[in-house]
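Sample 1 of the test manifest.
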Amino acid sequence: MIDLKSLREDPDVARASQRARGADPELVDQVLAADEQRRALLSAFENQRAEQKQVSKSVGKASPEERPAVLAHAKALAEQVKAAEADANEAQAELDRLLTQLPNLVLDGVPAGGEDDYVVLRTVGTPRDFTAEGFTPADHLDLGQRLGAIDTDRGAKVSGARFYYLTGIGARLELALLNAAMDKALAAGFTPVITPTLVKPEIMAGTGFLGEHAEEVYHLPTDDLYLVGTSEVALAGYHAKEILDLSDGPKRYAGWSACYRREAGSYGKDTRGIIRVHQFHKVEMFSYVRPEDATAEHERLLGWEEAMLALVDLPYRVIDTAAGDLGTSAARKFDCEAWLPTQERYLELTSTSNCTTFQARRLGIRERTEAGNRPVATLNGTLATTRWIVAILENHQLADGSVHVPEGLRGYLGGLETLEPVRP
RNA sequence: GGAGACGUCGCAUAGUCUGGUCUAGUGCGCAUCCCUGCUAAGGAUGUGAAGGGGCAACCCUUCCGUGGGUUCAAAUCCCACCGUCUCCGCCA
């Protein structure tokens, strides 16, 4: 949710933001109109209510002779107030409805346009030349099956398409990755957290995932709970309705959780292997910072992501996501994409978003300052996910189907240097 | 799953039976000031949140776990839900 007061003062910023996202700038004016309506009806209600309270109070003091007249007056007022309140509530609901449709304001410098209008900030590392090495790389599923690491057939048998088992070295590899990520986070001063993965509607809505992309989220109607698509949700909700003290610097949490995504609307996309799945694990960084520190924190989160990519020795690029491809809550987003040899394309491995005060305002997360309480800024970023296994297997494979273990991970795999196939 | 108790302004607590003077009292804590010749004691004032109006001083509305209801009027009465605790049952 964006700030109504600043929207009133300077609606052009919001209109420009909407245009950059390829969204409708008209929505801004609808919000402003609804706000005006709401304030008018609210004032009317409050004035009537104040009068009613006065009259009501005088009932007790009235003499027996006056009482019937006063009571009648009070009764009439009560009717009016009830109607006025209903009108004011309706106007408030309409404003809320419109306001929650408005996504966060994009920051200056974010490229305008849609999914393909990203800007490449840098490219790090060099993809291997498999032609020069004299063999055709196998894809991650072939490699994973030969290593006895990935079993998508049984995943489909038990749970359906886009489910999988990680077995043997596959399971160990995921634990190694996530443990490495947790260690990195710990070293950077994050508090490790294992989060709930089922959350209440208000938390899911507060993080902005029930807007346009509500279809992506699993919902359990019997209990009215949502399965999180990332621990960002639970970590954003962690301090909901709290007033924080950020005088000692940002509050940083590293969440470890399973993540669930319906992948609605991605039929036929990335159907092979474990690139796009309904359930995976992730270590996620989450920061609560003062609004003026958000941009610097965003750079720091990106830095820690790149350090993780360096640890597993993958070639990647960093992109500045275009406005139209930002989530509802994000004001800016950087993705790190690793090179995927068999598809000759880059694959998103991490994503870090600066949500400015958007989530905090919805969730009621504030900090106390001299000038009063104000919403904080929230940011998130990926440190590792199950998907990283895809890039690690493909980029570090050898001609015989074995896989070289990047040095940074060996300590988490009992010193193992090579993953050996268990079948041809 | 069954039975019961409880949920009040940072913390503690009064108020709920018997609806109106609750504009929610008191203590602690905190802040500012005063007094005091001293690592003490005392005194005064202030002390939450959200929203609205006003150039401003300031005023108004809402909030007593949440949401409904009864009533001219609800912290107080009724209903549902949530949470905490105790006991019993069941089970890891």
